[in-house]
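W.,

You were right to be curious about this one. When I first looked at the sequence I had no strong expectations either way, so I just let the prediction run and decided to look at it fresh. Below is the sequence, 313 residues in total, followed by the output.
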Amino acid sequence: QLFGPSFDLAHYTYSGEQNYLNRALLSLEVNRARVAEAAPALMEFSDNLETISMSLLSLLEAGNYLEDAEAYKEASDEMIISLESLTDLSNNYLDIAGGEFAANTYGPTAMTAFVTSVHLERVDGYPDETREHHLERADAILNRIQEKVWDEEREIYLFAPGDDRLMLYPNVTVMGALAKAYQLTGNPTYKERFEATYRGIQALKDEDGDHYHSPYSKESMGATDDDYTTHSSQNYLMIALFTMYQATSEVAYLEEVNTLLSFLKERLLIDGQILHHWIDGRAAADPDPYIYCLGCNVQTLYFLLVIQMTLMG
């Protein structure tokens, strides 16, 4: 829902090929209708929380590529009102369960970081008179995350309050929000928190130095050692690092992205497909419960195109 139309829009911008724009618009209309339907009664659609979330972000991302995206902005704003009601009720931290698997699998810290990203992407995609409001809301939510789940000693964000496991997803999703907030505002506090979290997740870096362990689905996949990671977790870490590179031009972030891309290429890319995870010294394969994720592959495809457009102009 997100990275498909975003890739098509980016490819159209890069190449001018009309068929990519046509396909993006078809996808975005489906996403717009889905978001508009869910906005008035969001919790009634909790079983589709992840799909709705990705659809919303696609509408916000479209503002970076399309001159006429008013319908997408209107649908997004209606959904943001619903999200605001939800965050107000939960005091800016979504300690809830719901969704296809997002809230339970990725955790409340990651889900709260998503809401922060919505406000930041609204500013990025549609810079208008609401800019300061959305930046203030993003700041308030990021501060609440810091207050609620920041582990000062280990320099990590917890999966949830009282859950002391070291997990990659909550940290990389908050890092992504912090990087975007720094990119938009230049507030050094965001960069300081990003750098602290980056230090903290080094405890998850594999001894080979080319990827980070991501244990959120380790048990369900049947991993027998700690060297388990998923395609999507490396994607979100790369996006966070590259966003900070875009904001700072610090080459170390870009070099780490290159290292992670090399891991995907050398370990998980098989016959044109990046497989879902690395487990027990091998890429995903039968009889693993899950082998391949289309969304993650399109996410990587989009990310590679963004890198190319950024670095080569």
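Here's what jumped out at me. The longest strand covers residues 277-279. And, maybe more interesting for your project: The beta strands are 150-151, 156-157, 229-230, 269-270, 273-274, 277-279, 282-283.

Coffee later to discuss?

I.
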